[in-house]
Amino acid sequence: MSVPKQSGSRTAFLERLALEHPDSVALADRLVRWARANDVVLRWSSAATFDTMIGWIVLGVQEQKVFSVQTNGQVSVLFRQLSNRVPIASDSAREATLQGLAAHLPNLPATSFSATKPDDKAVWPLSAFATAEPVGELLKLLEWMLRGLRAEHEEMLAGRRTKKKGKSVVAQG
Questions:
Q1: pLDDT in tens, 75-128
Q2: Under a CB-based contact definition with an 8 Å cutoff, are residues 14 and 25 in contact?
Q3: Which residue among 13, 45, 84, 137 is buried most deeply as judged by most CB within 10 Å?
């Protein structure tokens, strides 16, 4: 069903979702509530054939895309965006991230995404989240990602503060 292009807004997204995937409106509502509770910024965009809701996390002056829901029937978790913009500092931290990711994926509906190649995105059909259980698992995955991103950001800031303090002590000494 073709819906005329509208400006990107929550209303436009939900209206199109209700027309094209009425069984997925509850998922979108739950993600909106979850995003608000977890300080995730939501942005909306419209195209001729579908609308998109994108969840962003703000870390200092950077913004990272975390997930998207499209009215063309897709839910995506955007690992590629994260690995491109927030590189993991150490090999041990990267391995721990891969292990955490691998631990979450078996609890979610099947996807072609592989935890051994996290420079990609996991994509599921909206219909995969028709019941509460997979939605809960998706939210657990997103919460795990947010904790990791925030921890990495805090570690990076702490390292900068330590370097600055060290330099200022040397400069004053």
A1: 998 876 666 555 556 667 667 777 777 788 888 888 777 766 656 778 899 999
A2: yes
A3: 13
Q: Tell me how far CA of residue 33 lies from CA of 18, 37, 48, in angstroms.
A: 18, 6, 27
Q: Rounded to the nearest 10 degrees, what angle do helices 25-37 and 132-172 cross at?
A: 30
Q: What is the pLDDT of residue 149?
A: 83
- Strand ranges for the chain from DSSP E: 41-46, 51-59, 62-70, 74-77, 122-125
Question: Could you tell me which residues are beta bridge partners of residue 56?
Answer: 41, 65
pLDDT of residue 13: 93
In this prediction, residue 84 carries a pLDDT of 57
Question: In sequence order, which residues have a C-beta less than 8 Å from that of residue 32 and are 6 or more positions away?
Answer: 10, 42, 53
How far from 143 is each of 38, 157, 171, CA to CA, in Å?
8, 21, 42
Nearest to 32 by CA among 16, 57, 54: 54
In angstroms, rounded to a whole number, what is the distance separating the alpha carbons of residues 8 and 80? Answer: 24
Partner residues linked to 45 by β-bridges:
52
CB neighbours (10 Å) of residue 57? 23
77: its two tokens: 């978790």
